[in-house]
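Data availability (excerpt). All sequences and predicted token strings are deposited with the supplementary files. A representative entry, Glutathione-dependent peroxiredoxin, is shown inline so that the format can be inspected without opening the archive.
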Amino acid sequence: MIKVGDTLPVATLMEYIEVEGNGCSLGPNPVDVQQATTGKTVAIFAVPGAFTPTCSAQHVPGFVAQAAEFKAAGVDEIWCVAVNDAFVMGAWARDQKTAGAVRMLADGDATFTKATGLTLDLTGKGLGLRSNRYSMLVKDGKVVQLNVEEGGKLAVSDAATLLAQVRG
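Structure token line:
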């Protein structure tokens, strides 16, 4: 499993953007993890799935609500990662009103999730291989803080906890 001090794995996530602009097309756009984190401070949180109850009611809304505080504390971007396709993540972004606050990034085939070792097997529940719920702070591609949830809870990977860690 990835740990504090490790470099993020080589992977490409996908992002669906609602409105064309800033050189981005509407269709799924590749996001090279290494390139996108170089020289930046990024708060990343992962969820087991888009539109799932805890993720939609608490996890994403917390980061959206505190996006300005993260930016004021020196975080360049906030990413939400889930093992879903880019179209689902785009629809969820629209539903959660994340534009300008949180980038909703799809790990459709779980390449990034497998490489971090933060997988969650929900096959018996009809969801297949998913991401564990976690949050991490990444500076210049290296993990400086990692909060992994146990047993499906939302106790250590929430926005308030990571923001407190960012502020030191």
